[in-house]
Design goal:
With about 325 residues, the protein is an alpha/beta fold. About 50% of the residues lie in helices and about 20% in strands. The protein contains twelve helices and ten strands. The strands form two sheets. A five-stranded parallel sheet has the order 3-2-1-4-5. It is elongated, with a radius of gyration of 33 Å.
């Protein structure tokens, strides 16, 4: 909204400038109304160019300028090489020079914009386009990760280093969930706010509230992607679809669910597990129990032990699309 206010003010200034020119230089523009129209058209053209260059960064502009200068230099060297001295017609030679500068300028701009920093260091030895300060490691948390709460425990182990970036629009979403009339949503929202308070109290990572917003984006997920891309931050999420879109947009991200799955302890055949048999299995005589992380354990000849705590010995593991199923035998019945 603020951007459009600036654009409207700029447009009014252009119109005023057009009218002022008619008063100062009436020979240039005789009619005051025509001056206002010309000023409006000039301002509108610049605003249209600004809108087209919305995704054009300062780095891309610098690279394009460098490429244009380099291409023009090569075109000038070719022009001064004497290849076209046999051309007596000035207009023909001017046309060839124009084509040379346009062609080499365009090629230089395209190549420079496609190049990375290492390519520039080859062209300009001993010059590195890097920041003098060490870049900050920024971590953006989405709503699902905050409500999940495991991120607080990970931060308390000093496993993750960096500054936690909490967007204002995520905080508003958490507050709206916490104020919901649905008891389940209200509990989830309050859990998320408690997680944030725990992270701030822990002091292991600095927490910064980011005021930036993207009014043109309608969803929180799209705003998170825009913000993470703009800051060069790493996005933490539990949303598989958001992670997929982040990959497509080259936004660095971590899926906490996949991270938790990768961090599960490795269980090998022959190990002993202490668990409770909670129900009967699919086949006759089988009992089923679960580990703390939710892994299913199928125990042979344990149907009669439902409701009891046992020690089971792992026999084999079966990988499925939903995870790992452990097959075990009863080793001991533990006292209640």
């Amino acid at each position: 909204m603020a951007l459009w206010v600036i654009r409207i003010l700029f447009l009014l200034l252009c119109m005023a400038a057009g009218y002022a020119i008619t008063q100062v230089e009436p020979l240039l523009i005789a009619n005051g109304f025509l001056g206002i129209v010309i000023g409006f058209g000039f301002g509108g053209l610049l605003i249209a160019v600004d809108e087209m260059l919305k995704g054009f960064s300062l780095r891309a502009f610098s690279a394009a300028t460098f490429g244009l200068i380099l291409g023009s230099l090569i075109a000038w060297m070719v022009d001064q090489s004497g290849l076209f001295v046999y051309l007596d017609d000035p207009s023909t030679r001017w046309l060839i020079r124009l084509c040379l500068f346009i062609a080499f300028g365009y090629i230089g701009m395209v190549l420079a914009m496609r190049s990375n920093k290492e390519d520039f260091s080859l062209i300009i030895p001993y010059v590195r386009f890097t920041s003098q300060n060490k870049p900050e490691n920024l971590l953006v948390l989405d709503t699902s990760v905050i409500i999940d709460g495991r991120i607080a425990e990970i931060l308390e182990t000093d496993f993750l280093e960096g500054i936690i970036v909490l967007p204002r629009f995520v905080l508003k979403e958490l507050q709206s969930i916490a104020d919901s009339t649905d008891p389940t949503r209200r509990a989830r929202g309050r859990r998320g706010l408690e997680t944030l308070a725990r992270i701030q109290r822990g002091g292991h990572n600095e927490v910064k509230i980011h005021e930036g917003d993207f009014p043109e984006e309608t969803t929180v997920d799209s705003k998170l992607l825009r913000l993470s891309h703009a800051l060069g931050a790493k996005l933490f999420t539990n949303d598989f679809n958001l992670g997929t879109v982040a990959s497509l947009q080259s936004v660095r991200h971590v899926n906490m669910t996949r991270l938790a799955s990768a961090m599960k302890p490795v269980i090998l055949p022959g190990e002993s597990l202490a668990l409770k048999v909670v129900r009967e299995g699919k086949d006759k005589g089988q009992g089923v129990g679960y580990l703390n992380d939710g892994t299913m354990v199928v125990i042979n000849q344990a149907q009669h032990l439902i409701g009891k705590q046992i020690e089971a010995q792992v026999q084999s593991l079966h990988q499925t699309g939903a995870g790992v199923i452990i097959f075990a035998e009863v080793k001991n019945v533990l006292p209640s």
